[in-house]
Design goal:
The chain has helices at about 45-60, 70-85, 85-100, 100-125, 170-180, 195-210, 220-230, 245-255, 280-290, 310-320, 340-360, 390-395, 410-420, 435-440, 475-480; strands spanning about 10-15, 15-20, 25-30, 35-40, 130-140, 145-155, 160, 185-190, 215, 235-240, 260-265, 270, 300-305, 360-365, 380-385, 400-405, 420-425, 425-430, 445-450, 465, 470, 485-490. It is an alpha/beta fold. The strands form 6 sheets. A 7-stranded mixed beta sheet has the order 14-15-16-13-12-18-19, sandwiched between helices. A 6-stranded mixed beta sheet has the order 9-8-7-10-11-21, with helices on both faces. Helix 2 (about 70-85) packs across helix 6 and helix 4 (about 100-125) packs parallel to helix 5. The longest helix has 22 residues, at about 100-125.
Length: about 500
Amino acid sequence: MVSSPVKNDGLYIGGEWVTPATQEKEEIINPATQEIIGLAPVGGMKEVDAALNAANDAFRNGPWPRLSAKERTAKMQEFHDALMARAEDIQELIIAEAGATRMLAQTLQFYTPMEHMQFFIDASLQNQTTSLPVEITPSMTGEKLLGGGVTVREPVGVVSAITPYNFPYFMNISKIAPALAMGNTVVLKPSPFTPFEALIIAEVADEIGLPPGVLNVVTGGANVGRALTDDDRIDMVTFTGSDLVGASIMGQSAPTLKRLLLELGGKSALIIRQDANLQQAAISGMIGFTLHCGQGCALSTRHIVHNSIREDYVQLLSTMVQHVKIGDPSDLQTGMGPLIRESQRDRVEHYVGIGLESGADLVMGGKRPEGLENGFFYEPTLFNNVDNSSALAQEEVFGPVAVVMGFDTDEEAIQLANDSRYGLAGEIYSSDVGTAYEMALQIRTGIVHINGGAGKMSSYAPYGGFKRSGIGREYGYEGLAAYTELKTITFHAG
């Protein structure tokens, strides 16, 4: 058994490490080797109740929401720096627990969320009070009154944060950091597949002396998740995951009218016009379904290519993908690791079967790679001549599967891109950037990248989706404001 960098053996509740009442442990496996990396505690209703009580007490009676922004920021900076000091341990855990390649673990899975955390820390120092215009109003006695007011942002309260298995450390930090920076308290529930990337954050929070109850971590299954969405001690739920689970959370939260921040599924379109740089577009297309074995909600898995260059694109893309090394994610040369579990590989195989039955052309992949008997690996799979109305083109596979379909006019490309229940992200490649921008304005998604976009996931850029891809925005100033309530205070100026 590989030793885990998480030293503590329980759940983190109210500033203490708590052994679950059932004393149940779950084997957490490395998806690349199927070896056990550790035994994780499994929480239940008793632990949820204790965590909610601790978070409520910390918010209603504790110092955290009442600290000045400067005081709270100082503690958050200490938190950030302590996490950075454990960068190597955390990255190794991301590789072993989530199956991320070493390069991905170091960059998008670790340093990007740490950049986001630093942004939230710095942005939380901005003045949260805004003056309203001074107005003159006639009174009942005929006098003229001078009045004004301000708006202030205050923390929402107790935040329930539920995170997925694909980018667990990233999602944990991206929800904890803005919530805590604005004075909220948090109960974090990680995926049962990736609990250690939440518990290691709790370990660091404990080491720096975050006040008791400000951050709590409870593991568990669907029963724990439901309890963390329908309890009236919770003021806000932030969730990243599938649209079906998101819809369930909306229903569970409805009776108590909770604030919701939902970042859900995607089936993002990559539009490649006839004047595109084909090499750059193909690189983006390759990343769109091989990055983290296709386990990303914003990845571009629908490739909408002008018919005049479609065959050239498919040939170039398939050639590139053949050079992606599949295997041990801890090897720096590996370009694609495993899916998270056997159940997810079964799902991918199900959709590949649907594609074959639908008459789409299988260009490459469609099977498990030879020589990798251990681990949940699957070959990058590319289909051409796909009907956009098919399940393969419409439903989120969450695996290394991409579909290619053709278009003849820009209007047709936009229609194909928008003909989806999702609207999280999209891309356009064209040498005519003005036309690409005009097209971007017509695509119903939360973010559109033109010719590769900014080159990084900017901390300043709001992120979220249209339609079934979610509600609200994370990151940027909008993402920080999402964890606040806006209050108006008016007064007589004279």
